[in-house]
Amino acid sequence: MGVTIRLASHDCEDSPNYVSADIMVEIPMDLGLHGSRALITWGSWGIGSGVADALAAEGAVVGLIARDANGLAAAVQHWARRAHLATEVADVTNIGALNCAVDEIAAALGVLDDHLVAN
């Protein structure tokens, strides 16, 4: 992540003395998420995957629930070296399957009382 800062002279843009530059600055952040647990539904692609990636980058332990087993397998492969991750295949519209998936992820990761992303 970075922040773009635009530097410009006080002259107007039409002036031959006008100077501007965009500088990309990496600002390290610590959101205090290291070791916290996050459960993300529909976490194998799209927004859910992006949220999982950001949380994992901050050191969170991530649990993913999705219907797509292949997508979850790809997520495991993507994050395996840099994140503690657990996944379960379930359709979140099926309450029984969802409860079972949450129980399995809780068994793998510990108490899930930090973050829930119901995507």
For the largest beta-sheet, the strand count, sense and barrel status come to: 4 strands, parallel
Q: Which fold name corresponds to the CATH topology of one domain? A: Rossmann fold
Number of alpha- plus pi-helical segments = 3
The gyration radius over C-alpha positions equals 20 Å
CATH architecture of one domain: 3-Layer(aba) Sandwich
The main sheet orders its strands as 5-4-3-6
CATH superfamily of one domain: NAD(P)-binding Rossmann-like Domain
Low-confidence blocks of residues? none
The helix/strand class is alpha/beta
Portion in strands: 25-35%
Helix and strand string, N-terminal first?
A: EEEHEHEHE
Helix-residue proportion: 25-40%
The global form is elongated
Could you state the oligomeric state of the chains shown? Answer: single chain
Terminal CA distance: 22 Å
Describe this structure in words.
The chain is of the alpha/beta class and 119 residues long. It has a domain of 82 residues: Rossmann fold, CATH 3.40.50.720. 32% of the residues lie in helices and 27% in strands. Helix 1 links the parallel strand 3 and strand 4. It starts with a strand and ends with a strand. The mean pLDDT is 81.
